[in-house]
Each structure stands twice: as structure tokens, then as C-alpha cells.
Amino acid sequence: MNKVSVRFFDDREIRAVWDDGNSKWWFSVLDVVGALRGVDDYEKNRNYWKYLKSKLKREGNQLGSVTTQFKFTAPDGKKRLANVLDHEGIIELARNFPSKQANRFMEWFTNSDETLDGKSKTKAYALFESTMLETIEIRTVKGLRQIHAYIFGGLYEFAGEIRSVDISKGGFRFASARFLPKTLERIERMPEATFNEIVEKYVEMNVAHPFLEGNGRSTRIWLDLMFKKNLGVCVDWSRIGKKEYLAAMEKSVVDSASIKNLLKQALTDEVDSREVFMKGIDYSYYYEE
Q: Where would you tag: which of 4, 105, 122, 222 has the fewest CB atoms within 10 A of its CB?
């Protein structure tokens, strides 16, 4: 059980660990308690979980008795055993949790706990009607991590995590992992008030390639959110062919004119169109095949 994934609910981490023996994820109970309460204090959440377990037991609910334990990093930096529950256990916890966030949490959790490769596309679809879009930090690295964690949570153990190793593709080496934190800080500070500025920022993030996998699918959503917020438009990706897109992105490392032309011709003001969004996801995944 050494594959840890991080997902985000209202900017709060929900950590999970993969159990190879039972082929399922186990989720940190204290992370879920903190998310449902909107509280970051570790000790307060731990005490609340003790209280809730006792309360549920008095009511005949044995949820607290079915938890197992796994070591997570505590606030003091040390690895400590912490209660974890599987998918069904977390849903049961949320159902019995006295919080206005419980229903919204269950909606998010159901969509983010998929472990099969093909399910990431379904979760990308779900973004359109999800409250997740309302909480993403547009333009920031954190926002990009939130997107990546949402669509790849349960698929990659590194969902939402910035890579710590060097990677390359087609002979091109992406930004060095050693300098990646500084590179991402620089990209985050780049302006995005105009079309050209937004595309330049997108191109730089593509060169950085912050994740081990899933960069293109995540950054295209990130790009559309910047367009939507700052210019009131988005990209109709169905207007951009795969070969043209890949060629333009490859060339963008030295000259961004081609990708700018492709994107500009595909802009639409139908930012609230479900059809445009879904087609965008279809094409985004198609580019990666």
C-alpha cells in the first residue's frame, strides 16, 4: 500500500492509498472530516472524529469499527497511523455527517473515485455540471493541479502531484524537474489579459509539463477556463484537427504563431454550451491517442 493519490475538495486535500491486495483505494478519514467541516486544524478534526465515532456507535452504526489504518504524514511531518475507509465507507460517513457540504461532497467523491483508465474521460465530462468548476483557481498552478487531480484521481497515484523526475517525448526534453518549482512560479506570474498572453502562458505550461502523465488533457481545460474568465470565449476543439494541433504545439516551442492561428479560428462565445464542452473533451482525448 504505497501508492498515494491526492484529490481536492474545496481546496482541501483528500489523500488516498491504493491497496493492491484488495484492488481498491482507502481514503483518509481525517481529511474527509476536515473537508466536510471546513476545518484545517488536525487536532480538532481528530477529536471530532472520536466524538462522531462514539455518537454513531450509540446509534447502532458500526462505521468507526470498520476503519483500518495506514501511515500518513501528520502536521508535524512525521508518519502516523491514521484511520482510512474504502469508497463505500466514505459514502456512509458522508451520509451520516451533519454538514451542509455532505451531498455536494458525495457528488464530487463519486465522480473522483474511478480507477479504470477509460473513466477519466467520464470524469472530465462531469466537470461541466460539477460545482468543482466554481472552486478551481483559474490561471494558477494550484488550479491546474485541481483539474488534474479531478480527472485522474483513482487512475494515477500521482494525480494532482507535480513530477519530481525528468521526462521527454519524441526526443524533446521537458522542463527539468530540478528547476520545475521555479519554472511554475514564473509561469503563474505571466499575465493573461489578452488572447496572445493567454496562449503564451499555455505554451509555457506545455513546455513545463508538470505531471508525469495527463498534461495535455489538463492544460487544455486550464486554457479554456482562462479564455472564459478573461475574454468570455472558449475553444471549440472540434474545429482543430489532431495532426494540425500536434504539429502546431510541437512548433510552439520556438514559434507560437501556428497554435495561435489555430486557436483563434476555433474560438466561440458558446462558453455555457454543454455540446461544445463535451466535444472539446472528445477531441482533447483524441489528441492523446
A: 122
Determine if the pTM surpasses 0.85.
Answer: no
Q: Are residues 159 and 258 in the same domain?
A: yes
Residues 6+ apart with CB under 8 A from 43: none
**C-alpha dihedral (154, 56, 96, 19), degrees to nearest 10:** 10
Query: Same domain, yes or no, for 144 and 231?
Result: yes
Alpha-carbon distances, residue 282 vs 61, 78, 250, 278 (angstroms): 43, 43, 21, 6
Domain of residue 63, residue span: 3-113
Q: Decide if pLDDT at 1 tops 50.
A: no
| Rounded Cα distance, 248 and 48, in Å | 53
Cβ atoms of residues 4 and 15 within 8 Å: yes
CA distance 239 to 24: 39
pLDDT digits (tens, 9 = 90+) for 177-206: 999 999 999 999 999 999 999 999 999 999
Cβ of 224: how many Cβ atoms within 10 Å?
22
